[in-house]
Amino acid sequence: MVPDCETGAFSSTLNCARRAACSADFAARCPQLLEGTGLGPVLRGIEQDGLWVNRELTPGLPMFGAAVRENGELRALILLHDAAGEQLSLYYQNMFRILCGLAETAMVRAGTKPAAKQEVRV
To answer: 101: Cβ–Cβ under 8 A, 6 or more apart, which residues?
Structure first.
């Protein structure tokens, strides 16, 4: 999920985020937009614990969520919508946290990498 709507940036008052990428299998099941009541608990969980876990199994909300931050600012959300009940254990939470940290590092590096110099031969 990436920032969308009027604000263009994540904040505690953000009321919607647009899906930027999704696997083909889940495209029909994952919402294109996460709005209002769905986004609020996810952002609060991420701000408080660094990770959202849908422990109440609320329908329509992702099972896991983490933030991609650049210089302390939220730039994107990584959300996992499909997980079985036994996958809500601390083991899976830590695995998701580690994988999201790796993805965050790669995304931030890709966004801040200087443009490659083109070699021109005459």
So the answer is: none
Matching residue, tokens 């801040």: 112
CA proximity to 1, closest of 71, 69, 96, 79: 79
Rounded to an integer, what distance in angstroms lies between the CA atom of residue 6 and that of residue 80?
A: 25
The model's pTM? 0.73
Measured CA angle at 58 (ends 53, 63), to 5 deg: 35
Q: Which two tokens stand for residue 88?
A: 């809500």
pLDDT digits (tens, 9 = 90+) for 68-111: 988 888 888 898 888 888 888 999 999 999 999 999 999 888 87
pLDDT digits (tens, 9 = 90+) for 35-63: 767 788 888 889 898 899 998 988 888 89
